[in-house]
């Protein structure tokens, strides 16, 4: 059976196999952020044969002819003057790839794709602990652990973890603690000897029962009133108006505000160059278990009148 070329429609990205889309997206990534791409780039990333790489470049040129120009002298493809991406490139993932590489391969060998500097990660959880926590979350099983707390030292506990949280300074697991009967944050570097238990988990121990986890609050962040050029702050945070509205779980909002150095005092009283944003309505944090971490936050009512003590704690 033959196909009339005049009736054949051009290829569509959605019709491609997943491996093809992945290779073409990487090819486009190289064009977009490096200005050029070559067959060796595909060899190094995917291990494809030269003929397959040639077909990938030909297919991409068919999909987006204005995006790519072949330069015979260097045998490379360069970005076209009218380049317009056909794949979505999330800025966070792009920055991660540029700073750390893609991390492909069994040995995990990787490195920055361009000169990049980022803060060193000082708190790295032991791989065995991280793996045990991840398996327990995936399986919905409790873990017996030894935990070292700043307030009470070492204790043996049984926790039911259901999420990992990156605070920017450390990683912790959000979990139900059977010892206290509360949902708490357990810092991964303080966990030892995790053992998965083959026992049932009750509905009251799952994420759906964690009020602080399921409660999502809206936070209105504005340029700090003391800043002389608020328009620059709007640029820094891609504000389309005078307010940057973000949503966060009550259990983690305080960590986020601390990481961003947001002044959460009611009268924007905090001084220091790090405070470029102000939480316009600190009452939005009322009742959030993580609010005590927010810079400058003070509860509008005495501690005993906030949410019940048994709802949430930090481990």
UniProtKB/TrEMBL annotation:
- State what protein this is by name: WYL domain-containing protein
Q: Give the taxonomic lineage as stored in the record.
A: Bacteria, Pseudomonadati, Pseudomonadota, Betaproteobacteria, Burkholderiales
Where does the DNA-binding transcriptional repressor CapW winged helix-turn-helix domain lie? 20-95
Q: Where is the DNA-binding transcriptional repressor CapW C-terminal dimerisation domain?
A: 217-282
Highest rank taxon of the organism: Bacteria
Against Pfam families, the record matches this protein to:
BrxR_CTD, WHD_BrxR, WYL
Source organism per entry reads: Cupriavidus plantarum
Start and end residues of each WYL domain: 129-194
Entry-linked PANTHER family: PROTEIN PAFB, PTHR34580
Leader sequence residues: none
């Amino acid at each position: 059976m033959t196909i009339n070329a005049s009736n054949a429609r051009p290829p569509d990205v959605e019709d491609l196999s997943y491996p093809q889309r992945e290779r073409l997206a990487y090819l486009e990534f190289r064009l977009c952020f490096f200005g050029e791409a070559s067959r060796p780039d595909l060899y190094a990333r995917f291990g494809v044969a030269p003929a397959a790489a040639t077909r990938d470049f030909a297919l991409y040129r068919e999909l987006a002819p204005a995006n790519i120009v072949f330069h015979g002298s260097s045998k490379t493809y360069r970005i076209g003057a009218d380049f317009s991406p056909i794949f979505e490139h999330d800025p966070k993932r792009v920055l991660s790839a540029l700073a750390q590489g893609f991390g492909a391969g069994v040995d995990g060998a990787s490195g920055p794709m361009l000169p990049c500097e980022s803060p060193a990660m000082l708190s790295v959880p032991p791989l065995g602990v991280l793996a045990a926590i991840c398996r327990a979350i995936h399986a919905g099983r409790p873990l017996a652990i030894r935990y070292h707390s700043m307030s009470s030292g070492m204790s043996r506990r049984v926790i039911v973890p259901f999420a990992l949280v990156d605070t920017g300074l450390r990683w912790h697991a959000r979990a139900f603690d059977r010892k206290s009967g509360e949902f708490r944050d357990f810092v991964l570097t303080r966990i030892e000897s995790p053992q998965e238990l083959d026992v049932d988990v009750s509905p009251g121990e799952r994420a759906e029962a964690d009020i602080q986890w399921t409660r999502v609050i809206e936070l209105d962040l504005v340029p700090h009133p003391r800043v002389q050029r608020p328009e620059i702050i709007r640029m820094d945070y891609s504000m389309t108006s005078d307010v940057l509205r973000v949503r966060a779980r009550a259990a983690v909002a305080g960590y986020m505000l601390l990481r961003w150095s947001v002044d959460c005092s009611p009268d924007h009283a905090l001084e220091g160059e790090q405070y470029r944003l102000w939480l316009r309505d600190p009452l939005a944090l009322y009742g959030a278990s993580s609010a005590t971490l927010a810079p400058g936050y003070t509860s509008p009512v005495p501690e005993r009148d906030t949410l019940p003590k048994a709802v949430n704690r930090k481990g």
